[in-house]
Specification:
The protein has helices at residues 9-26, 39-48, 54-67, 71-75, 79-86, 92-110, 118-121, 129-139, 149-157, 166-174, 182-195, 223-227. With 236 residues, the chain is an all-alpha fold. It has two domains: 9-30 and 145-227, Orthogonal Bundle (Endonuclease Iii, domain 2), CATH 1.10.1670.10; 39-139, Hypothetical protein, domain 2 (Endonuclease III, domain 1, Orthogonal Bundle). Helix 1 packs across helix 11 and helix 5 (79-86) packs across helix 6 (92-110).
């Protein structure tokens, strides 16, 4: 039995953009679920979010942000003090080392300010493209695609990419959408991944974009059964 022909490039782009429009209707208030008020706070919160939940990060950052308000504060921080505050986020020793080194790098290279450029952000300790794009899109209004585990999973299920490498996923998905859509696209896809399109048992029968999804059926298709799998936000 021969496999079906993959969609043409034009058909792929049209379907991808339609999914984005449908997600915009489903999640009109989509946004980052990390709490922050400054670019530095968002940068720190995103570093802390590795291997834990935004909800957990939001529980520790009020204390952290009250004590450390500038890059210089982090640069001069006592390791034990930071570790005690962020311990519940996991990998707290490595994260503490990153935050202190981050403060030093910002002071040494950028006058204590978070630079609004991807090429600069990715040179900072603890900062990769995912973290950089979170900061660019949400603190500076500069479009970026955030490829976390949810985004990568859904991008593959939607047929937008077959790649596993986050940088390649970012490039291939970015080519399907106008640059101005990238940040909000990231939020919508991540929200959908957290709430409906789960890793193990996606709620296919309760999915608002099911008719557009080439992976429909990998989870329960009965609506009543699928509804039980839907998780309600917010996750912050």
């Amino acid at each position: 039995m021969s496999l079906p022909e993959p969609p043409s490039r034009t058909a792929l782009v049209r379907r991808a953009r339609r999914i984005n429009r449908e997600l915009a209707v489903l999640y009109p208030d989509a946004h980052t679920e990390l709490n922050f008020t400054t670019p530095l706070e968002l940068l720190v919160a995103t570093i802390l979010s590795a291997q834990t939940t935004d909800k957990r990060v939001n529980l520790v950052t009020p204390v952290l942000f009250a004590r450390y308000q500038t890059a210089a504060d982090y640069a001069a921080a006592e390791r034990e003090d930071v570790e005690k505050i962020i311990q519940s986020t996991g990998f707290f020793r490595a994260k503490t080392a990153s935050l202190i080194a981050l403060g030093q790098a910002l002071c040494d290279r950028y006058g204590g300010e978070v630079p609004p450029r991807l090429k600069d952000l990715v040179t900072l300790p603890g900062v990769g493209r995912k973290t950089a794009n979170v900061v660019l899109g949400n603190a500076f209004g500069i479009p970026g695609i955030t490829v976390d585990t949810h985004f990568g999973r859904l991008a593959r299920r939607f047929g937008w990419t077959s790649q596993d490498d986050p940088d390649k996923v970012e490039a291939e998905v970015g080519a399907l959408f106008p640059r101005s859509d990238w940040t909000m696209l990231s939020h919508r896809v991540i929200w959908h991944g957290r709430r409906v399109c789960h890793s193990r048992r996606p709620a296919c029968g309760a999915c608002g974009v099911a008719r557009l999804c080439p992976s429909f059926g990998i989870g329960p298709v009965d609506e009543k059964e699928a509804r039980k799998l839907v998780k309600e936000g917010p996750f912050s």
